[in-house]
Write a structure and sequence with these properties.
With 388 residues, the protein is an alpha/beta fold. The chain has three domains: 19-134, Nitrogenase molybdenum iron protein domain (Rossmann fold); 145-238, Rossmann fold, CATH 3.40.50; 247-383, Rossmann fold. Helix content is 42%, strand content 15%. The protein has 13 helices and 13 strands. The chain has helices spanning 19-27, 41-51, 62-67, 70-80, 93-98, 123-134, 157-170, 215-228, 235-258, 270-284, 310-320, 329-334, 360-383; strands at 33-38, 56-57, 86-91, 111-115, 145-148, 175-179, 193-196, 207-211, 263-268, 287-293, 305-306, 324-327, 339-342. Helix 7 links the parallel strand 5 (145-148) and strand 6 (175-179). Helix 1 (19-27) packs across helix 2, helix 1 crosses helix 6 (123-134) and helix 9 (235-258) packs parallel to helix 13. The longest helix has 24 residues, at 235-258.
Length: 388
């Protein structure tokens, strides 16, 4: 099939996706679910480029919008029907606005219809809306825990999954279902207990035992798991946390003997941005100039500005003149002389083959390693500049 020329759908903000893309990111994480984006070519290409997963589209044209889209949608569904356990249709803005009744499609248990047009909100809204439509079933007798908060739009999704599984294995905890990087059948027998990798995407499945985002959070979560699951040994994880803490302190102390603490600007998802700020303040004594959260940080979160307006972020960067920026390629382009560490998409003009984590022990080590190396490289560049 000839694909229409790539374009962005108007409802998407390049800094943070809308509800439609959030729903796609949730559903495409299940390898046996076909995700059909019911909308224009732009509505297809944006989540396809962000998730990197094989998804499908109806690529609606003007005449189909005028005379009805159901026949085109049924044609696409028929083309993938024999290859997947379930088919998830994500409704986008135009079909939602015209109000076409497609409810008959959802009468087949194999077809899940998710009405998640972009105007409903941001990525998190669509992600949770899709998860609610899946309706995970908790089996009280299921062993182990679920891993929550995995999204294919996150550059660290696979690394986070690997690190979560590694730490849980160290403590003798099995993994039941990973939301959302698993098979659909796993959602029908979720465990009654869950650990979070990204609190911004908490799905509320079962009882939450804590987060793995940050060394303190890891320690607290595994202490809690040890009290509620018989046979769990939190000591190997506590030992790793202590080892990582010592390594980070040593590396930061060496840096601070030569350089002043950096002035830092942070942009990204609220949970990741807050975690990075705490890490840099704790170990480097960093001056956090601002935190610009792409999504709503929620009640009680002070010192965080919620914005997806690049002009606003530009002014914040110009005012702060940061030594270090954690964020995306957009923030990097606004201050090319600052040290830069990627914290959120898009991260362009670089090759990424491995699966780095931002959570857990390895995530904290990797983030501080990149921060220190980026800051040292910046000092080297500046010291080699010609004098006036």
């Amino acid at each position: 099939m000839m694909m229409p020329e790539e374009q962005h759908t108007p409802c998407e903000n390049p800094l943070w996706p809308c509800a439609m893309t959030g729903a796609v990111a949730c559903l495409a994480g299940f390898e046996d679910v076909a995700v059909v984006v019911h909308g224009s070519s732009g509505c297809y290409f944006y989540p396809a480029s962000l998730t990197g997963a094989p998804i499908y589209g109806t690529f609606l044209l003007e005449n189909e919008v005028i005379f009805g889209t159901e026949s085109r949608l049924r044609e696409v569904i028929a083309g993938v029907d024999d290859r997947y356990t379930r088919i998830a249709v994500v409704n986008t803005c135009v079909p939602a606005v015209i109000g076409e009744d497609l409810s008959d499609l959802g009468r087949d248990d194999r077809v899940l219809f998710i009405d998640s047009p972009g105007f409903l909100g941001d990525l998190e809204v669509g992600y949770r809306r899709a998860l609610e439509r899946i309706s995970p079933e908790v089996d009280p007798a299921a062993p182990g825990v679920n891993i929550d908060g995995i999204s294919l739009t996150d550059p660290f999704c696979r690394g986070n999954t690997i690190e979560a599984r590694r730490l849980l294995s160290l403590a003798g905890v099995s993994v039941q279902t990973t939301f959302c990087l698993d098979r659909y059948a796993a959602t029908r027998r979720a465990a009654p207990l869950t650990v979070e990798t990204n609190p911004d995407l908490s799905g509320g499945i079962g009882r939450t035992c804590g987060s793995l985002l940050g060394l303190d959070a890891v320690s607290e979560t595994f202490e809690r798991l040890a009290t509620v699951i018989e046979g769990v040994d939190a000591r190997p994880v506590a030992k790793e946390v202590a080892w990582a803490d010592a390594r980070i302190r040593k590396g930061c102390d060496r840096y601070l003997r030569r350089f002043d603490p950096p002035v830092v600007a942070i942009a990204g998802g609220a949970a990741y941005a807050g975690y990075a700020a705490n890490l840099l303040e704790r170990y480097l004594g960093a001056d956090i100039a601002f935190i610009a959260a792409r999504n709503d940080p929620g009640p009680g979160k002070t010192g965080i500005t919620h914005t997806t307006d690049l002009a606003v972020i530009r002014e914040m960067i110009l005012d702060a003149e940061p030594d270090l920026i954690l964020g995306s390629s957009y923030e990097q382009a606004l201050a090319p002389d600052a040290a830069f560490v990627g914290l959120t998409f898009p991260l362009r003009n670089r090759v990424k083959l491995s699966s780095p984590a931002v959570i857990g022990v390895e995530g904290a080590l990797r983030l501080m390693e990149e921060v220190l190396n980026a800051c040292i490289d910046r000092h080297r560049r500046r010291s080699s500049w010609p004098r006036d």
